[in-house]
TrEMBL record:
Keyword Methyltransferase: no
Keyword terms of this UniProt record: Membrane, Transmembrane, Transmembrane helix
Organism: Solanum pennellii
Main location: membrane
Family in the record: Belongs to the major facilitator superfamily. Proton-dependent oligopeptide transporter (POT/PTR) (TC 2.A.17) family.
Annotated protein name in UniProt: Protein NRT1/ PTR FAMILY 4.5-like
Amino acid sequence: MGICRNVKTEEKQLQKKGGTRAALFVYVVAGIDTMAFISKGVSLVTYFSGYMNFSLTKSANTVTNFMGTAFLLSLFGAFLSDTYFSRFKTCVLFSIIQVLGFALLGVQAHFSQLRPFPCKDVPLSQNDRCESADAGQLAILYGGVYLVAFGNSGVKAALPSLGADQFDEKGPKGAAKLSSYFNWLLFFITIGAMLGVTLFVWIGDNQGWDWSFGICSVAIGLSTLLLTMGKQFYRNNVPKGSPLMRISQVLVAAFRNRNLPLPQNKEDLHQIRSEEAENGIEIIQRTDQFKCLDRAAIPRNNHEASTSSAHGPWSLCTISQVEETKIVVRMLPIILSTVFMNTCMAQLQTFTIQQSMTMNRKIRNFEIPGPSIPVIPQVFQLIMIPVYDRIFVPIARKFTGIPSGIRQLQRIGVGLVFSVVSMAVAAVVESHRKSVAIEHNMVDSSSQIPMSVFWLGFQFVIFSIAEVLTLIGLLDFFYAESTSGMKSLSMAITWCSLAFGYFTSSVVVSVVNKVSGGWLGNNNLNRDKLDYFYWLLAGVSVLNFGFYLLCASWYKYKKRELNQEGPISDEKPKGKTEMCVV
């Protein structure tokens, strides 16, 4: 029997793809992308209020709308990634859009005629005299801001999935590596966030906003180049068509077959053919929840089939396709129960920055920029993530037998508890801050009160624990539970929780202001009732946790059977492949 050297060489090349080496490119790119995005998420409040002359409330709402849009539009990026492009191509395309957005903002910040005269140094009592931005200036501002949001949304949808694709999730070892991947992804994201809220914020405060936006544009461009350099190492997904289309087909077919009785023998339901299974299509076992959707998989009898399109995709679906739809339906309550936590996070990212601007931010002769305060919990996260991944998970795995140590829904639940505690602590700290301002007769003063900004670290550190547990738990949960054809969509669903949290944040501020008679209606935090607002958020968070417990106890984890190839297809080297000669 002859030896096929070309075939063996090809197999060796396929084996070299994926793994930690390929994921390293994703880690670094995720860190750079976060560095640019988060630096603006925490500092745009001061840019809007100090340079574009927005009110404090409008500044906070504009930032939360910007952040929310970036997360919500990830659904569109996920649609393109799962349906038309690979995750790699989606990341490159949307990164370029993000570069253009930062460049546009940099141009506006550089040329003073493109923005109003800044009144950042005007006393708080005279803010109403500030000149507002005209329509043209607002068009440039919102154009740049939402180009960044749109570009970042596609990267958010595709990049985490691209990294997760590099690990085989079949079997306990693969599942453990996948869970560890999400932990280390957050580790690099945290490093990027730290650089964003320190270095980039310092550049904006000291070198100018044009430099800050410009460097962000260059950084994203370089990260895109780095991502392309790792292409030869990636295991690339093959788009399998729109998951939204498949879900729609199940819903329509179930409605069309609503009058058909469910067969007594579940084997009579339509399932993937054996030749399709051999091609690596994922087979999902049937579950008993949402039996009404099983009607989409009922084959019609011969008479009905001859008089209608009974075997079309809108009339007959496979059980695996039905179960894919059930998975999405089961995920929705989990997403809804985590939205309010992200509402609380949005409040901390905006109002806490404004609190810090009224407090003593000096360490000897160095003054910490207000938007850099989030570096406190980020340092804690850098310590906590390795401890969790290398110490807690192996110990927990020995007792539970679960590859990730504890189940994802348990991890999310613990994170929600910490979010409740953080909001209560935030209320106590704000009450103390206001009492210091009153005690020193500085209620209407724009000067810093004699209270260290590190008091805000308590609420940030506690919430950072909640974020490590909840965010990564959600990413791991939705990627592991989704099917091979909707991995990007599952990541987008996770980000939608943050999106709705940011949008709800704007609504909550407006509603509370109206109902309370102006708890947050002043441009002076010393006269606002921010502590009452934090107590309200803590109380609603308790109710939200109760809702989450109901959703988590009701959820049924996916039962699946994976074939040899699974959802990943390695790109074969181009060139001639010789056949074996016997």
